[in-house]
Amino acid sequence: MKTIALAGNPNxxxxxxxxALTGSRQHTGNWPGVTVEKKEGxxxxxxxxxxxxxxxxYSLSPYTLEEVVSRAYLVKEQxxxxxxxxxxxxxxxxxxxxxxxxxxxxxxxxxxNMADMVRASGNTLDLKKLSAVLGCxxxxxxxxxxxxxxxxxxxxxxxxxxxHRPDSFEPQVLQALExxxxxxxxxxxxxxxxxxxxxxxxxxERVLEELHLDPxxxxxxxxxxxxxxxxxxxDAESILTTQRYDYIxxxxxxxxxxxxxxxxxxxSDKIDRVVTNRWLALPVFVLVMWEIxxxxxxxxxxxxxxxxxxxVNDVLFGEWIPNGVETLLTTLGxxxxxxxxxxxxxxxxxxxVLGFVPQMLVLFFLLSILEDCGYMSRVAFIMDRLFRRxxxxxxxxIPLLVATGCGVPGIMASRTIxxxxxxxxxxxxxxxIPCSAKMPIIGLFAGAVFGQNAWVATSAFVIGIGAVVVxxxxxxxxxxxxxxxxxxxxxxxxxxxxxxxxxxxxxxxxGWSFIKRAGTLILASxxxxxxLQSFGIVNGSLSLVEDNNVSLLADLGRMxxxxxxxxxxxxxxxxxxxxxxxxxxxxxxxxxxxxxxxYAGLGEVSEEGTEIWAAxxxxxxxxxxxxxxxxxxxxxxxxxxxxxxxxxxxxxKWTLASIGYMCGFAYVVSLMVYQIGGLFxxxxxxxxxxxxxxxxxxxxxxxxFRKGYSGRDDTIHTAxxxxxxx
Length: 726
Ligand code: GDP
Ligand code: MG
What we know:
This protein has 726 residues and is α/β, with parallel strands linked by helices. It contains 32 helices and eleven strands. It has a seven-stranded mixed beta sheet with strand order 2-3-4-1-5-6-8, sandwiched between helices. α7 packs antiparallel against α10 and α30 packs across α31. The protein starts with a strand and ends with a helix. It binds guanosine-5'-diphosphate (GDP) and magnesium ion. The site of guanosine-5'-diphosphate has 21 residues, from α1 and α4. The site of magnesium ion has 2 residues, from α1.
């Protein structure tokens, strides 16, 4: 059996090619020990060849989990051949990985993908010349249009010579690598020696750990590396990166011709002229998001999401299921308490959450269009420009983007950020972004209090990003976080038509995990909540109560409700809002689930919405709705996300600081919204809290505009000096 590893940058077309080459004969699973997808399949018409789809990687330096997995596989397992797929419309950036793969001492076949788009762009690539300089077969293909696949299959089936090392580095570096190879000669297998030398030169932490150098060897290695660093006046990793890109530029100069005239912009370039324009980019982005929220959650003729949700709420969970359940319960002769548990607890609680499924599916579908067609990469690029001004890199935007689905992978995505301080800052703020579980909370208030206005959801998104930016500005001015942001290189793939199958798959994947949670976690807590709100202490003994205001849950809620008095959570809704906020820590859908259980049967079904919505509308004013919504969007995330913060920070102090910061920030913003907003609407009279609110606003402005810490960032240099014994 011959194994071929399929490697390439994210979005280069790996999955498409893998499917085309293997047909339906494939297995998916996870890589041992991690939840990164592992796929393998047999090459069509060549049963003895196994293709292994590696997770998308930009380089063989382990910044992300995917990169760690792929690198471990390539270096340790040594497949028989590497099929490197590059995006032909972005060849320069993609060849960066190729230069590293060629150092692995494995046979490499290079597939230049997107031939159709390359042709359309008018650029030309001389494959023969490229193949000659790289010393490996180079084949032009289109994975999507199934062009060139036979030729590629033929090359894969043939035995290929071992890839020859690219001529990327200058003599000083090569000299240093020579010396390092001597140093490591008895530690690693000879075929991997060069690769290990390169990684040791870069001071790659994982490799150094694995090598177990003794102090004398460490000292010699450090001396070799520092000498080169002095000569170039740059750090080792940047030296290699620069020389690799210089090398790519040199080879492409010989075989790549860009279409000459400037007037021949591709349509992709034309779109980018508007979409990434310095002045238009942000307004366009806000407009796009607003349009998406209008379709998914608004109240217009095009709001398919809302129509679906209305139907589920009014018909499915408004009539069919309750009526059906009632009939069933009566027929079965089920007792009063149990049928109330089922109707007011389970059906109302789970139903309140499931009602938002249509809106969420539409939202996910539209977001996957943006991702699939390439617009989201533009957004990261636009955000880099914005974030950079505040000392954050666009790299911090990727975790935020992931967090719109779920905060847990969002927090994990922060691993791509190399600088520790920026990574910490990103972990601390990723939870501000409204994740999919927070969408029902937004939907509930948008529906119950704000007449389905699409601006509610849009502003929740803007408030989330705003909280990140404001936190970035404020925290960057403290010494622990100060420093230049990391450079952010990213490719802007040409716009693609998204494929329907991809869109449906990713929509379903996100939607299904939401539905699954409603059936398990949310269901279980509906039951617990219902019991706690149906029983109370009456005359010293536990008994069933009619009014949940005297229930156990109300007593519990009231014990903590004082915390939120300054935020305007008052009257009967105070304990309900408090309980909802705390159950929201289990999972954010719980907030709506809790309202579903607590408000069941309290409102009237009407034209405007469900009975629960009506009951919520009676309890919340616009200002208190905002104060509640903002607090729940920005405060500590759910337990799963807190766990992710703990894992990524790998330190309790930082974990607690992050959670404390989020809660504090949420509290301050909600306090200002209620106290200052309330003064305008007349709900609030001027009190000591108003003074506090204005004082906090002043403090926030001072923190925003004060001069930051600007000392030189000496830590790295000091650490290096210590290590080399100076
Ligand atoms: P992966 O991230 O490397 O797995 O990339 P995918 O296989 O998911 O492909 C990314 C996008 O590129 C998808 O929208 C594909 O439909 C598209 N794509 C892949 N190959 C081609 C191609 O040859 N031509 C064009 N025009 N699009 C392609
Ligand atoms: Mg893929």
